[in-house]
Amino acid sequence: MLRVTVRSRPGHPWVFSNEVVSPPVIQLPPGGAVEVVDIKGRVLGRGYANPNSLIAVRLYCNPSDSPDDPELYVRRLRDALALRERVVPGRRSYRLCAGEADSLPGVIIDRYEDVLSVQITTRGMEDRKDMLRAAIEAVVSPRGVVFRGDVPLRAMEGLPLERSVWWGEVPARVRFEENGVRFEADLIDGQKTGFFFDQAENRAFMASRVAGGRVLDVYAHLGGWALVAKKHGAAYAATIESSAPANELIRGSAALNGLEIDVLHGDAEVEMGKLAAGSFDAVCIDPPAFAKNRKSAGVALGAYKRVNQAAARLVKPGGLLFSSSCSHHVEAARFEESVVHGARSAGRRLQLVRRGGQAPDHPILPGVPETEYLKHLVFVVR
């Protein structure tokens, strides 16, 4: 095992290439196991390396563990499963593994009852894919598993882009439940790993506050906000989504639950502009990450202001605006400012009544800000 000397942030699992003292980064074994020490020779941990990535080493093992021990992956997945059984008891669908937050960097696993969607984004975990599969089979024993290796991060790690059924039986549409609603998702051709479980608790908060009202779900994806609202007593619910396949899944989920949803197909800003001001009791807006990196944060803030201006215009006085950002690179305070400025541009005043974040099946590592990404704000619109 190669010994790497670094200048590293205490407790952070990432070692950037400019923090490596010796050997030269170019000599690190791609995907290979390394032991990391600080400049005083104190062992910081073990992990895997990639000289082709800005993050040269990802730490996830104590000095007594090895990244090449198959039992390590079994233990980590058992710990991850036990955490979910404690923090989201009774649920059968959730994020089972959240990468660094579950000490398995580069691994995302979403569970849809007895089917899994697995995403591997790093060379080190790609090289240990067989050990990960054996651990999944031992701990979860799923009926089928989809491999989603089609995210741009893989190209940055020197990995091919691919997606397929990894093993077992995977239906064209998987069914699962959240907040009393049965959903359908396409794990192979759908967006990312299929569904956004990170908003489950925020949707639950919304559900009990929109009974009898009119609700709009913008950037709807699979219609989670609208379907939960309608299931819990909203008089009317509509979605805006630009993806035709996603809209078909919304219709399928609505039919599965015996619900009526008005599905609007098109660009979110264009479609919002067609709707009458003050025509909704609640608008839920959950756009994709506008900031893919730190450099684009300024542009993203402008986009958040613009779309929230359009959303706030649609909320009747006294109604609710549920606004989210999944861009880690956008600071929470700056996001909040952009929403407030957007509403002001629409001639609306906001009262903040709740700050939310990602659901507990998406745990956060203290001292590792990269694991905390979701900002969710609830406002009363005046």
Q: What does this protein look like?
A:
With 382 residues, this protein is an alpha/beta fold. It has three domains: 2-61, Archaeosine Trna-guanine Transglycosylase, Chain: A, domain 4, CATH 2.30.130; 70-168, Transcription Regulator spoIIAA (2-Layer Sandwich), CATH 3.30.750; 174-381, 3-Layer(aba) Sandwich (Rossmann fold), CATH 3.40.50. It contains ten helices and 20 strands. It has helices at 70-87, 123-126, 129-139, 152-156, 200-207, 224-231, 244-257, 268-274, 297-314, 332-345, and strands at 2-6, 14-16, 20-22, 33-38, 43-49, 55-61, 93-98, 107-112, 115-120, 144-149, 162-168, 174-178, 181-185, 214-218, 236-241, 262-265, 280-285, 315-325, 350-356, 375-381. The strands form four sheets. The chain has a seven-stranded mixed beta sheet with strand order 16-15-14-17-18-20-19, with helices on both faces. Strand 14, helix 6 (224-231) and strand 15 (236-241) form a beta-alpha-beta unit. The mean pLDDT is 95.
Write the layout of secondary structure elements.
Layout: E1 2-6, E2 14-16, E3 20-22, E4 33-38, E5 43-49, E6 55-61, H1 70-87, E7 93-98, E8 107-112, E9 115-120, H2 123-126, H3 129-139, E10 144-149, H4 152-156, E11 162-168, E12 174-178, E13 181-185, H5 200-207, E14 214-218, H6 224-231, E15 236-241, H7 244-257, E16 262-265, H8 268-274, E17 280-285, H9 297-314, E18 315-325, H10 332-345, E19 350-356, E20 375-381
